[in-house]
C-alpha cells in the first residue's frame, strides 16, 4: 500500500514541520510493506491549512482506474498558527485518526481489506506517540 500524507498550507501554519516529522517517522515504509489486496493500492491525504477567505472546499475522490483514494483534511489556519509545535502534531494525528477511517469505511472496494488497513493505520497513529502531546 502506498500512503502519502502531503499538504497545501500557509507557511505560517507550521504544518510543513509537522509533515516533515511525520515523514521522518517512516510511515511510507511501514505501509509500503503491507498488502491489503488489489482493489486499493494507494491513499493520499492532503492536509489543507489555508486562509479561510479562500473558501476552499474539502475534496474526497476515489479513482477506480488508478485504484487510489484522495482525501483532503481541512485544518483551521488560526488554530494552527497559534499552537505550539507539539499541539500541532497532536491536532494532525487526531484528525488523521478520525477522518481517514470515516472516509475509507464509506467506500466498498473489491479485493481490499479495509478493516486490516484501518487497524494498521491506528497502530501507526498510536506508535507516533503524538496523541499524548500537549
Brief overview:
With 134 residues, the protein is of the alpha/beta class.
Features:
single chain, 134 residues, alpha/beta, 4-stranded mixed sheet, 5 helices, 20% strand
Structure characterization notes:
This protein has 134 residues and is α/β, with parallel strands linked by helices. It has one domain. It is 44% helix and 20% strand. The chain has a four-stranded mixed sheet. β3 and β4 form a beta hairpin. The radius of gyration is 15 Å and the shape is globular.
From N to C, what is the helix and strand string?
EHHEEEHHH
- Side-by-side strand order of the widest sheet: 1-2-4-3
Uncertain parts: none
Tally of separate helices: 5
Strand-residue fraction? 15-25%
Sheet of most strands: 4 strands, mixed
Query: In total, how many domains does the architecture comprise?
Result: 1
| Assembly state of the chains shown | single chain
Helical proportion, percent range: 40-55%
Distance between the termini: 31 Å
Q: Shape from CA axes?
A: globular
Tell me the radius of gyration: 15 Å
Structural class: alpha/beta
- Average pLDDT value? 96
State the total count of DSSP E strands. 4
Fold topology:
Layout: E1 2-9, H1 15-24, H2 27-32, E2 42-49, E3 60-63, E4 68-74, H3 77-82, H4 85-106, H5 114-128
Parallel strand pairs: 1-2, 2-4
Antiparallel strand pairs: 3-4
Helix pairs in contact: 4-5
Amino acid at each position: 500500500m502506498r500512503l502519502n500524507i502531503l499538504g497545501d498550507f500557509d507557511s505560517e501554519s507550521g504544518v510543513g514541520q509537522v509533515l516533515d516529522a511525520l515523514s521522518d517517522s517512516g510511515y511510507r515504509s511501514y505501509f509500503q510493506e503491507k498488502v491489503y489486496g488489489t482493489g486499493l493500492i494507494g491513499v493520499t491525504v492532503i492536509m489543507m491549512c489555508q486562509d479561510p477567505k479562500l473558501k476552499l472546499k474539502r475534496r474526497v475522490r476515489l479513482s477506480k482506474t488508478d485504484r487510489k483514494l484522495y482525501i483532503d483534511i481541512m485544518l483551521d489556519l488560526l488554530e494552527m498558527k497559534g499552537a505550539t509545535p507539539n499541539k500541532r502534531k497532536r491536532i494532525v494525528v487526531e484528525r488523521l485518526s478520525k477522518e481517514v477511517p470515516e472516509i475509507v469505511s464509506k467506500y466498498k472496494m473489491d479485493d481490499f481489506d479495509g478493516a486490516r488497513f484501518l487497524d494498521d493505520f491506528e497502530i501507526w497513529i498510536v506508535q507516533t506517540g503524538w496523541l499524548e502531546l500537549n
